Amino acid sequence: YDDRDGWIWMDGEYIPWREAKVHILTHAMHYGSSVFEGERAYGGKIFESRRHSERLAESARLLGFKLPYDIDAIEAVKLEVMKRNDLSDAYIRPLAWRGSEMMGVSAQGSTIHLAIAAWSWGAYYGDAKMKGARLDIAEWKRPSPETIPCRAKASGLYMICTLSKHAAEAKGYSDALMMDWRGYVAEATGANIFFVKEGKVHTPLPDCFLNGITRQSVIAMMRERQIEVVERHIEPAELEGFEQCWLTGTAAEVTPVAEIGPYRFEVGQMAKDMVSAYDAMVRAA
Length: 285
Ligand code: PMP
Known about the structure:
This protein is an alpha+beta fold. It has helices at about 25-30, 50-60, 70-85, 130, 160-170, 215-225, 270-285, and strands at about 5-10, 15, 35, 40, 45, 90-100, 110-120, 135, 175-180, 185-190, 190-195, 200-205, 230, 245-250, 255-260, 265. It has two domains: about 5-120, Aminotransferase class 4, branched-chain amino acid transferase, N-terminal domain (D-amino Acid Aminotransferase, Chain A, domain 1, 2-Layer Sandwich), CATH 3.30.470.10; about 130-285, D-amino Acid Aminotransferase, Chain A, domain 2 (Alpha-Beta Barrel). The strands form two sheets. Strands 8, 9, 10, 11, 12, 13, 14, 15 and 16 form a nine-stranded mixed beta sheet that branches. Strands 1, 2, 3, 4, 5, 6 and 7 form a seven-stranded antiparallel beta sheet that branches. The longest helix has 16 residues, at about 270-285.
């Protein structure tokens, strides 16, 4: 993704896309000390922009550092980055990380950096919005909150996701459903999951993974429509009895799921309704 035209904002300056680099002894690269966001803009307006900036600051706090810019400044930069790159429908990627002044596990004295990039990014799961995505069941588990600050959108946590996604792709799937450390259904590698059974919606309780902003928006939207949504622990054995399934995430938006390992789901009316209702909501916001 480095060889293209455009501008990336880094620590207060606009850098040509190909020159936006960091030193090889950057702490974040060796020890995973970075946090990031993924946001989408529709018609020039970033959906839930402020909540994303606040989550970035909270992720940094959970990793023990403070962002070098406040929320208002970050809000302004995100819009400016889109403008500089002539984007109105865009994916926005803020990233904050510990710099290269110290080597070793400790980085107490290192500078905290912040960069913001933006580009246009189409459908995350390709044509799955119509046909439904095919998911493998991952062997790697979401860790316990006692193992890692799992509410942070921290780069280190994505090691588990990349391992799971690569294993799924090697078998021809587009993603993987991960269980948590107790064995309950958790989430996909970059999106939350919902199921439908007998008119009711069921979704895992986000007690050890990201409570996605899209997830929260979709739950609110369903409750406004008097659809019953139950947040609870879901056993893998229950997958057999669910009729419909979809994923939610900033990049994924709402994407129906047709398959999880041996289980099959209908790309049904409720899933289709959620796809279009979400599209309408982000464009109306
Ligand atoms: N879980 C993971 C692991 C993710 O990477 C994402 C995408 N940020 C989500 C869930 C969904 O979060 P959001 O709806 O805030 O994009």
